[in-house]
Design goal:
The protein is mostly helical. The protein contains ten helices and no strands. It is elongated and about 55 Å long.
Length: 203
Amino acid sequence: MSRLRTRPTRDDTRDKLFEAAARVFEAEGIGGASIEAIAAAAGFTRGAFYSNFKSKDELIIAMLEDHVEQSIKRNLDLLAEHTDLDEFLAALKAMDRSKQDPLGRSPLLHMEMILYVARAEKRRPELAKRLRARRKLIADIIQATQQTNPRNHARNPSWMASVLLALEDGFRLHRLIDPETTPADSFLRAITDLRRATGLASS
């Protein structure tokens, strides 16, 4: 008989560190959070942390990368089921955030982490790589959905993806500053309103 695994795998450890880091960042702030606090919140030692990440910055980059990868997978899974844009947006709005990764559950923490990393100029190319991946995802969604509804035609899906991504990030920043007047679904509501205003909504 095979032995039961009693020690966590590397992926298990990383996932627990991601979850713990998100809690500590939200409680203490990203700048004030220590590696010791993150490791303790995950139930690990400093050694376990350093066996996975060289620094807090490397942990943050890994969390951002994991979030982008999971976001792409979630959206492509939805797109496989809903090629109509209205149906896709409705499914996206109804998605259960509680089952997502830490940054998927907390868009505000996601934005804070991006701004934190962007302060270090040498780290910006890594952010740019993830930004391009997010742009491509949106452009692919636009192209796929307009094939099923010619009225949803975008002459330049890549540029439209840039516009939508800037709109999404803008609403995240506004929600960070003024959550009382910026609902969590502001971005999706804005897309719906824009499509109605430009006559691109499905009949």
